[in-house]
Amino acid sequence: MKRYFLLIISILTLSFSLKAQDAESMFKAAVDKLKSYDNIEIAFNYSMINTEAGIYETMEGSGFLQDKAFKLHIMGQDIICDGRITWTYNADAEEVMISEVDSDGGNSPIAIINSYYDNITAKFLENDNGNTKKIEVKPLSGDENIEKIIVTIDEKTLEIKDLHVFDNNNNEFVYDITKFVTNQKLPDGFFTFNETDYPDVEIIDMR
Questions:
Q1: How far apart (Å, rounded) are the C-alpha atoms in residues 102 and 49?
Q2: CB 99 within 8 A of CB 90
Q3: Residues 6 or more apart whose Cβ sits within 8 Å of residue 65
Q4: Cα gap 46→42, rounded to integer Å
Q5: Burial 144-159 (b: 16+ CB within 10 A, else e)
Q6: CA 25 – CA 11 distance, rounded (Å)
Q7: What is the rounded distance in angstroms from the CA atom of residue 17 to the CA atom of residue 115?
Q8: Which of 46, 39, 32, 92 is nearest to 70 (CA)?
Q9: Under a CB-based contact definition with an 8 Å cutoff, are residues 72 and 63 in contact?
């Protein structure tokens, strides 16, 4: 579930190249541009919809990405990774779970989206109006839970307006970007969990 969510966060950070001539080229150009940033800060509104089950949940999320490191806040948790170790901190439970990152850096949002670079099909869908365009992306292999992803972008500014993710359990996950900032100067130790700052935290070491 965490890997699935990080994939979504990665796609949220994409912006598209004017030079791209088709949907797949546009998606790949976006991945290349994503990897070119020193770091990224993002904020978004999130909804989970399952019409059959009568589910409609909404919340906010935010985070930072830098190469293999990231810091995300979503669903009441802080997920922090320095590229080697991941800390998942739950403030309400006053506990932090520690785990190791895969040797290939697979927990990194940027690494995850890069793994879909050569394993997708993409096509343009109908325009909402004269200013926006939809792109449908389907994985050919990898995460079997994802059926398709639909991104709406502004054709003039190439900004992402929203992102809809459909899984194989009839769930739809909607993300609206509210903030996107790149190449900030972040302090040393930004992507680590300092246990001394949380003297009462329960440590669950899964390494």
A1: 31
A2: no
A3: 9, 10, 13, 39, 40, 42, 109, 110
A4: 12
A5: eebeebbbbbeeeebe
A6: 15
A7: 20
A8: 39
A9: yes
Count CA atoms within 13 Å of residue 2 on its CB side.
18
- Triad 141, 144, 145: Cα angle to 5°: 145
* Residues whose CB is less than 8 angstroms from the CB of residue 193 and which lie 6 or more positions away in sequence, other chains included: 78, 80, 87, 89, 96, 98
- Among 162, 108, 152, 113, residue whose Cα is nearest residue 129: 152
Alpha-carbon distance 145 to 22, whole Å?
Answer: 26
In this model, does residue 133 exceed pLDDT 60? yes
> Is the distance from CB of 79 to CB of 192 less than 8 angstroms?
no
Q: Tokens 């109006």 sit at which residue?
A: 129
How far is Cα 161 from Cα 199, in angstroms, rounded to an integer?
A: 41
Rounded to an integer, what distance in angstroms lies between the CA atom of residue 28 and that of residue 58? 30
Most confident stretch, 128-142, 156-170, 171-185: 171-185
Confidence of residue 158 (pLDDT cuts 50, 70, 90): low
Opening angle at CA 202, ends 196 and 75, nearest 5? 95
Report how far residue 64's alpha carbon sits from residue 43's, in angstroms, rounded to the nearest whole number: 9
The whole-angstrom separation of Cα 155 and Cα 18 is 9
